[in-house]
From TrEMBL:
Residues 18-57 form the Putative regulatory protein FmdB zinc ribbon domain. This is Regulatory protein, FmdB. InterPro entries: Regulatory_FmdB_Zinc_ribbon. NCBIfam families: CxxC_CxxC_SSSS (TIGR02605).
Length: 95
C-alpha cells in the first residue's frame, strides 16, 4: 500500500523491496524515517504518539544482510530511536 494524502493505493512489489517511509508526527511535528511492514504501526521516537502522516521517502535495497541490519539498529538505539524494532525486540531492550 502507498498512502497519499490519507488515501491507500494498492501496489504490487514484485522484487520484494521494502519501502523506507518518512513520517511526521501530528503531535510534536518531529520528522523521521523507518522501514515499516504494512502490519506494523510505528510510533514517534520523540513523543511516542501514533498520530503520524506517512509518505514514501525512498526504497531500501533488497536483501540487506543481518549484519547491516544489526549495525543499523545498534546505531539507532545509540541515538535513542527505537521505532525500527519489533515489539518483541523492544521488550528485551527495555529490561
Amino acid at each position: 500500500m502507498i498512502y497519499t494524502g490519507g488515501t491507500a493505493i494498492a501496489t504490487r512489489n514484485p522484487r520484494g523491496i521494502m519501502p523506507l517511509y518518512s513520517f511526521q508526527c501530528s503531535d510534536c511535528q518531529a520528522e523521521f524515517e523507518t522501514l515499516v511492514r504494512s502490519s506494523d504501526t510505528p510510533t514517534c521516537p520523540q513523543c511516542g504518539s501514533a498520530k503520524l502522516e506517512r509518505t514514501i521517502g525512498s526504497l531500501a535495497p533488497a536483501g540487506k544482510s543481518a549484519g547491516l541490519i544489526s549495525a543499523g539498529r545498534a546505531q539507532a538505539a545509540r541515538e535513542g530511536h527505537f521505532s525500527n524494532y519489533s515489539k518483541s525486540e523492544l521488550k528485551g531492550l527495555r529490561k
